[in-house]
Amino acid sequence: MKPRGIVLHTVGVLGDTTVKAIDTYHKSLGWSGCGYHRVVRKDGTVETGRALWRTGAHTNGANDTLGICVTGDGDREPWTPAQHAAALALCVEWCRHYGWGAEAVCGHREAPVWLKAKPTSKTCPGKLVDLPAFRAELSLALTKRSPAQG
User: Fold this and answer.
1) pTM value?
2) Once rounded to an integer, what is the mean pLDDT over residues 53-58?
3) CB atoms < 10 A from the CB of 23, how many?
4) I need a labelling partner for 3 at 20 to 30 A (CA). Which of 101, 103, 117, 130 fits?
5) Residue 35 near residue 64 (C-beta atoms within 8 A)
6) Could you report the per-residue pLDDT of 9-35, keeping only the tens digit for each?
7) Cα 25 to the chain's mean position, in Å?
């Protein structure tokens, strides 16, 4: 799969969870496993879901994107600072790898407009996540040289 962007999600359940639990739930829906490519835990740990080369199962009509799921419920609890930092670092890494700008990143709730995905009633990654501010921070981070660039 050649992805065309990144979609941010929330689990939609208070507290923390694991990629294994998400995998089990997604299999119960008849999917082949966890539909997200990465899951960001409360402590900032990043767990691998689907391989990056595999098509996602996270945004109906736009599964040709990379999916990041942040644990918790973004409508009722903000991302932890560690989650914010980890999600931002993933987006920086992938944007640099694929040559994208910050505009390649959207929340699931924005995907119908940004990516022509199927309409959704979801507020993913949650009402408490300021997506324009996240993209502004990502844009700034993308202008800075990475350690690998010297």
Assistant:
1) 0.94
2) 94
3) 20
4) 130
5) no
6) 999 999 999 999 999 999 999 989 999
7) 18
Helix, strand and coil percent figures for the chain, each rounded to 5: 35, 15, 50
CB atoms < 10 A from the CB of 51, how many?
8
- Beta bridge partner(s), residue 87: none
The alpha carbon dihedral of 32, 33, 35, 37 has a sign of negative
pLDDT at residue 48 is higher than 60: yes
The DSSP 8-state label assigned to residue 148 in this structure reads G
Question: How far, CA to CA in Å, does 73 sit from each of 1, 34, 92, 128?
Answer: 29, 18, 23, 9
pLDDT tens-digit readout, 101-118: 999 999 999 999 999 999
Q: What is the DSSP letter of 11?
A: -
Query: How much is the pLDDT for 148?
Result: 59
Residue type, 41: R
Strand partners, 95: none
- Collapsing DSSP to helix, strand or coil, 133 comes out as helix
Give residue 1's pLDDT.
84
Question: What is d(CA 66, CA 52) in angstroms, rounded to the nearest whole number?
Answer: 7
